[in-house]
Amino acid sequence: MCGIVGLFLKDPGLQPDLGAMLSDMLITMTDRGPDSAGIAIYGGSQPGRVRITVQSATPDTDFDGLGNALGEAIGTPVAITQKSTHAVIDLPADKAEQARASLPRLRPSLRIMSRGETLEIYKEVGLPRDVASRFDLRKMGGTHGIGHTRMATESAVTTLGAHPFSTGADQCLVHNGSLSNHNSWRRRLAHEGVFTETENDTEVGAAYLTWKMREGATLGEALQASLTDLDGFFTFVVGTRDGFGVVRDPIACKPAVMAETAHYVAFGSEYRALVGLPGIDTARVWEPEPATVYFWNH
Amino acid sequence: MQSYDLAANGLRGLNSQLHALKAQGNMTAWEVVNPRGAHAIAAGVDVPVEITVRGSTGYYCAGMNKQATIRVAGSAGPGVAENMMSGTVIVEGDASQYAGATGRGGLLVIKGNASSRCGISMKGIEIVVHGSVGHMSAFMAQSGALVVCGDAGEALGDSLYEARLYVRGSVTSLGADCIEKEMRSEHLEQLAALLERGQCDPTIRPQDFRRYGSARRLYTFNIDNAGEY
After folding, report:
1. For chain A, which residues score pLDDT lower than 50?
2. What chain B residue is nearest to A285 in terms of C-alpha separation?
C-alpha cells in the first residue's frame, strides 16, 4: 500500500496554506500506511543562503551547542531552528559543502534529511496526524510539496526508512510500490559517486534521478529514463527546486489520481486525498496514464 | 426517496441499512450524498432498489451487487462493481482500474473511460464502456461480453476463455491467444441489444465494431505444448 500526495501551487495566494493543505491530504491517506510519515516542503529562499535539515534520535544532546560548534568549524555564524527531532540549519551557500563535511565529525549520530535553497524534509515513525503536529507542518508555507505515509515492505520501520528521500540539493521523491533491482543500481550509482545511506529501495530511485539530472537530464528526461532502468512497481512523485513530476510504471497497479485547476496541480493515491482542495468539484480530475511522464515547472 | 449523508453518518450506517432491506419493502429509492471518494459504498446490496451516489467514489463501489440499480453521478475508483452477480451499475464519469472484475452477471455501464484491467477475469457480467479501456482489459475473461465504443489498450483479452469482446476503435495490441473473429448475425444482435441497454449514442452502429475472442489454443492442455508451461 502506502499513500502518497503532492501539491504544486500555481496561485501564489495559496502559498501560506501549503502546509495545511498537504497535511490534510496526507492525514486522509493514513489507512494506506500507518508505519511512518513525512513531508517535503519547498518554502521561500533567500539569496546566497542554503538550509540543511538534520535529524537526531537524541535531539537534546545533538542539538545542544550545535550552532556554535558548526559556526566555529566553518568560520561563520549559522542559524538553527529546532523542531522536535529535526533542526534546520541556515547558512551561507558558499559554506554548505564545508558544513556537510563538518556535521558528521561534530555530531556523528546526526542524519542529513535534505539540503538546498528551499527544501525542508520532516519525517518520523508514526501516524501522519502525529507527525504533522510534532513538526507544526500545518503552519508551513511554500510553493510545492510532497508527502508519504508508509506501509513498510522493503526495509525496516525507522525514521531513515521513511519517505520523502532526498539524494541531491532541493530534490526529493516519494514512492508507492517496490523496486526489485535496487541493489544492483545502488552499487552502480556508488560507482558513479552517488551514495545512498539506507537499505531502502526508494532511496535508490531518488539517487537514480539525482544521477540522471547531474548528467544533464531534465526532470522529465530523468523520469522517462527511469521507466527503462528501474524494475518493479512504482508510482513516483518528485520535487525539484521549481519542478513537480509524476510517473507510474507500465503495469500501473499502484493507484494514482490527479487534479488540476488554474490554482494548483494535485496528486493523491486516491481521490479521497483531493476532496478537501478548493474548487475540486470543477477541477480536471484524471488518472495518470501508465509509463507516461507528467511534470510542471514554476 | 431515502437520502443518506455519507460524510456525516459514515459508511457502516449506510451499508447496514442497505443490507437490512427486504425485497418487498417500500424504501426502493436511495440517494447517497457527500461520498468524497469513500470505499465500498453500497457494496453487497441484494434487493431490487435504485441507489444514486452523488459524487465520486473510492474502491469497490457496488461490489458484489445483486439486483440493485446503482448509479454513480461522478467517477468511480478501483474495482467498481467487482464480482457483481446481477442488477445494473452505471458510472456517469470515468472508472479506475479493474472495473467489473470477476463479475458473474448484471450490466456495468461506464459512460466515460475505464482504465487498465477492465473486466479482468469476468465470468458472465456484461460491460459497456462509452469511451476507451486501458491495458490488459478482459485478461482471462471467462464469459460475458465487453463492449468498448472507443479504443482498447495493450494486450486486450490476454489468455481469454469464452467472453466476447466488441471494440469500435483501435486496439493497441491483442494479448496471448486473443484473435479477431468474424462478426456473425447473432453477434450483431447481441451487440445491438447491449448498445441500447448501455444507453449508448443511437448513432453508434453494431457493424462498426470488430469482435475479438479466444483462439482456444492456450486454455486446453496440449501435450505438444508441455515445454511451454
Report:
1. none
2. B75
**Domain limits for position B17:** 2-216
> CA-CA distance, A236 to A13, in Å (whole number)?
27
User: Hey, how many other C-beta atoms are within 10 angstroms of the C-beta on A292?
Assistant: 14
Asked if residue A266 belongs to a domain, the reply is yes
CATH number for the domain including A54?
3.30.70.240
Total of domains in chain B: 1
A272 touches chain B (CB under 8 A): yes
Which structural domain, as residue segments, surrounds residue A211? 3-41+127-297
Q: What is the 3-state secondary structure (H, E, C) of chain A?
A: CCEEEEEEECCHHHHHHHHHHHHHHHHHCHHHCCCEEEEEEECCCCCCEEEEEEECCCHHHHCCCHHHHHHHHHCCCCEEEEECCEEEEEEEHHHHHHHHHHHHHHCCCCEEEEEECCEEEEEEECCHHHHHHHCCHHHCCCCEEEEEEECCCCCCCCCCCCCCEEEECCEEEEEEEEECCHHHHHHHHHHCCCCCCCCCHHHHHHHHHHHHHHCCCCHHHHHHHHHHHCCEEEEEEEECCCEEEEEECCCCCCCCEEEECCCEEEEECCHHHHCCCCCHHHCEEECCCCCCCEEEEC
Residue A23 amino acid letter: S
What are the chain B neighbours of A274 within 8 Å (beta carbons)? 37
Query: What is the predicted pLDDT for the residue at B215?
Result: 93
- One domain, residues A80 and A13: no
CB-based contact A234:A176 (threshold 8 Å): yes
Whether A172 is catalytic: no
Residues of chain B positioned with their CB less than 8 A from the CB of A285: 56, 75
First to last CA, chain A: 31
Model pLDDT for residues B151-189, shown as the tens digit of each residue: 999 999 999 999 999 999 999 999 999 999 999 999 999
Same domain for A224 and A242? yes
DSSP element (H, E) containing B24: none
Distance of alpha carbon A113 from alpha carbon A107, whole angstroms? 14
Nearest Cβ partner of B36 from A252, A272, A290?
Answer: A272
Mean pLDDT across B36-64 = 98
- Which residues, including other chains, have CB under 8 Å from residue A191's CB and lie 6 or more apart? none
Domain final residue pick, A117, A150, A172: A117
Q: Which amino acid is at A208?
A: Y
